[in-house]
Design a protein that fits this description.
The protein is of the alpha/beta class. The protein has 14 helices and 13 strands. The strands form three sheets. The chain has a seven-stranded mixed beta sheet with strand order 2-8-7-6-5-3-4, with helices on both faces. A four-stranded antiparallel beta sheet has the order 9-10-13-12. The protein has a two-stranded parallel ribbon with strand order 1-11. The model has no long low-confidence stretch (mean pLDDT 96).
Length: 398
Amino acid sequence: MTLSAATRTRKIASRVAELTGEGALAVYSRAKELERAGKSVIHLELGEPDFHPAAPVVEAVQRAVADGHDRYCATRGLPVLREAIAEYLQRTRRIAVKSEEVLVAPGCKMALSLAMMALIEPGDEVLYPDPGFPIYPSFTRGLGAQAVPFGLREGRQFQPDMQEISSKITARTRVLIFNSPNNPTGTVFHREELERIASLAQEHDLWVITDEIYARILFGGEYQSIWALPGMSERTVIIDGFSKSFAMTGWRLGYAVAAKPVIDAMDMLVLNTFTCAAEFTQLAAAEALRDTTGAVEAMVGEYRARREIFVAGLNGVPGFRCVSPEGAFYAWVNVAGTGLRAEEVARLLLEEGGVAAIAGGAFGAGGREYLRFSLVSAPEQLREALRRIAKVAGAWAK
Ligand SMILES: Cc1ncc(COP(=O)(O)O)c(C=O)c1O
C-alpha cells in the first residue's frame, strides 16, 4: 500500500511510534510464505490453542443469535456473565469477588489496555517482567509512561528478584505488572514472591496488574492470586479471559476484576470506545464457565502430555536446555550452547527444518538467548518437529 502525498505529510500522533508489535506474527507470515511455496511447516510460533470451544458453548452462541441476542448491551458486561465470572473465580481460584468488581471487554488485551489507561499517567514508571508479554512495555510507552523491566532469570528458575524490583522503585513508580504463569517462560510465581510483591506494593502505594490469562493451564498445585493476599484487593487488577482456558481466541472476550472505582473508570473508557462486547458471545461465555463437559481439565491434560514429550525431546538436542514449564503452553529453550544467535537458530529451524518458533528477543532483552515453542500441535506433530530439529542441529553440533 502506498500513501498519498497528502497522507505522508499529515502527522500521525506520536504515541503510535512508541508502540511495537508481537514477534510471532512476523514468523507466522514467513512460515505461510514457505507453505505457499510448497514447504511443510509445523507451526509452533503462535500462542493459539489448537482446540475449539466445547460443544455446549457453540450451541449457546447459536441459540443466542437465533433468539435475537445481538443488540447493544451493558457497557461493563451482561450482569449474568459478570455474576458467572465472580462465581467462577470463587470456585476455581478461591477469591472473593463481587460482580460489581468485574468488567467484560472484547479480549484480555482490551481489558489490559483499559486498566492501563485508567491507572497510568504520562511520566509514570511501570515495572514489567522481562522476558514477558511484549504489549506491557509497548502500551506503557504509548501512554507516555516509562517502561522499567525486571528480569526473570533462569538462575532463579525465572522467579522475580525482589532486590532488583525494590531497587527499581522510584517516587514515580505507579504500577507493577506481572503474568503468572508467565508467557514465555511458563513460570508460576511462588507464594513467597507474591507476598513480597504485595508488601512492596503496599509500602510504595503501587497498583498491581496481574495478568492471569494462563491461571487454569497449570501442571500442578493450586493457583494463587495476589488478589487474595491481605490488603491487595483494593490495589490489584486481575486480567483474564476466554482465549486460552476455553480455546476461544477469535471470540474476543476477556475481563478485568478490580475495586469498583477502577471498574467505573474503565467503564467510562468503554463507553467512549467500543460501547460493549457482543451480547451473544457473552451469553455463550457464561456457558463456557460452567464447563459441563470438563473441557478445561481435558485440555490441560493434553498440554501436560505434550510438555512431557516436547521438553524431554528438546533437552536431547545438542546446545538446547529447557526447564519444564509449570503452567501455560510454551517451551522456553536456552540455545546459547549452540554457539549461534537465537535468531539464527530460529531461521535455520524454519527455513531448513520447517519448524516455526520465535527468537526470545521478541519478549525482551532477557530473552536474547532463548527460543519459544508453543505446544499447540498434537503429539505426533511435536514428535515430527523434534525429528526435524535434530536434523537441523547438525549445523551447529559438530
Ligand atoms: C500474557 C498474555 N496476556 C494477554 C494475551 C491476549 O489475550 P486475548 O487474546 O484474550 O486478548 C496473551 C495472548 O497471547 C498473553 O499471552
